[in-house]
Automatic annotation (TrEMBL):
GO molecular function: copper ion binding; hydroquinone:oxygen oxidoreductase activity
Main location per the UniProt record: secreted
EC numbers, comma separated: 1.10.3.2
Species of the source: Vigna angularis var. angularis
Name recorded for this polypeptide: Laccase
Domain of life: Eukaryota
Reaction(s) this enzyme catalyzes, per UniProt: 4 hydroquinone + O2 = 4 benzosemiquinone + 2 H2O
Biological process annotations from GO: lignin catabolic process
UniProt keyword Membrane present: no
Record keywords, A-Z: Apoplast, Copper, Glycoprotein, Lignin degradation, Metal-binding, Oxidoreductase, Repeat, Secreted
Family: Belongs to the multicopper oxidase family.
Gene: Vigan.04G186900
Domain Plastocyanin-like: 38-151, 164-315, 431-559
Cofactor(s) for this UniProt protein: Cu cation
Amino acid sequence: MDSSHFPSFLRVLLFGFWVLALFPEFVVSITRHYTFNVEYLNVTRLCHTRNILSVNGKFPGPRLVAREGDRVVVKVVNHVSNNVTIHWHGIRQITSGWADGPAYVTQCPIQTNQSYTYNFTIVGQRGTLLWHAHISWLRATIYGPIIILPKHNESYPFRKPYKEIPILFGEWFNVDPEAVISQALQTGGGPNVSDAYTINGLPGPLYNCSSKDTYTLKVKPGKTYLLRLINAALNEELFFSIANHTLTVVEADAKYTKPFDTDPLLIAPGQTTNVLLKTKPYFPNASYQMAARPYFTGRGTFDNSTTAGILIYKQPLHHSSLENLTLLKPTLPPINATNFVANFTGKFRSLANAKFPVNVPQKVDRKFFFTVGLGTNPCPKNTTCQGPSNSTKFAASVNNISFALPSSVSIMQAYYSGQTNGVFKTDFPATPLNPFNYTGTPPNNTMVTNDTKLVVLKFNTSVEVVLQDTNILGAESHPLHLHGYDFFIVGQGFGNYDPNNDPAKFNLVDPVERNTAGVPAGGWIAIRFKADNPGVWFMHCHLDLHTSWGLRMAWLVLDGAGPNQKLQPPPSDLPKC
């Protein structure tokens, strides 16, 4: 039949289908709308029932699914008594910093019975990220996965998996985590530790009163599964392994990596790792424990326990019951296996091919050297504290500045309105003001300075930051997260960074690109990024205790000259403090 006999609207429709069939790259991105209701939810774990904060009555929270290039609009409605914000961890937020979410940095929090709509576009990212609350310790229960699929007609740089499964690690407290951090900040001591780690919200059978709350992953023989691993725990880096199975790492923080096999692996809070799990070609006469437990090098107390789930092969009909299967258990590294961690993190490399090139800055405009670690504040007059001594409180800092957040305005609102007086200063030191032997004997004076100082960067500045751990109150691994950017990890090492010899060993060919990276205990990492995203961008340790103690700072990236190089105006529903 001649197409001229079709009505005109059908001809347009047919032409559209023909164009899409011939030119699939014309498939346009879409806008995806979500509503996140922050509400109370009764949850029982370890025989303790708590009224936790949740999103849409789910724990962990709902999946946010989008494709690369999509616009995402999330209306967050606060139905609880706490002030709330949500951070879309790892999303670049190009010129949309108002949607980033850290309280008092890019926005005032959403108050009770108020709402705020986060509006952002996903640019040049595909893989797994996470969303979580970004005020105090609310992310203990307010968290969930962000799953970014490739654009239509784009494929993974590995064979399409049979199935994709998000696996979120979390931390469970039998009491309200807000009471825990509030008490710790008051006494100046270390906080009470969590009562369990969880896999997809379930602690598993190794805890008392918990065997029914065990995550079970059912698989078929001879298939490849993509596990989207997310560490949403508050304060611990975690080792993870599945008994008798090797995992292949293919992506980290929504950036593809050169594939490598590992068993076990390490994942820090805020990090995501996509791994391929190839199941055995036959039905085995066993079930397999998957387990996660902490990596810890510090001096304080920590939750030294193990969360476990079960990997079960779906059995053929004629097979005997699952009860008769042998349970095989994985071997995890020792708690303080720093050498394993260094070897493991050193294996990550960017794909660095024609389709996924690496744009690591080869020359650097500005260099920074930041110490990260613990310190002390004096105890208020006529009180005793529970810090390192009874006259001090625990603190944490970057270049010995413990960052103080404003409380009556957000930093970016103050910057945008030009009313910065008394809100923040712009003289954050590029190097430590009082250098010392960072990984040797600590100095006698461990007091920090409390202030709100930023680093100002001109648009498109190439930046190098060396992050150096210190021995003050114990060497410790610090997973540092930078908002608004992915950065290249060009070098890492133990001991004090040597500016004369270490740069020669930097990898400027295929360094891994991440948004969260562990500063090694008693060591350093060097990162590079291009400041091509205007706004105020928080950088902090993703161990929430250290963030609360002040191990945080912020970068102010100025507008560029071009129309797409400027911070967008604030949305009309931006919350008021």
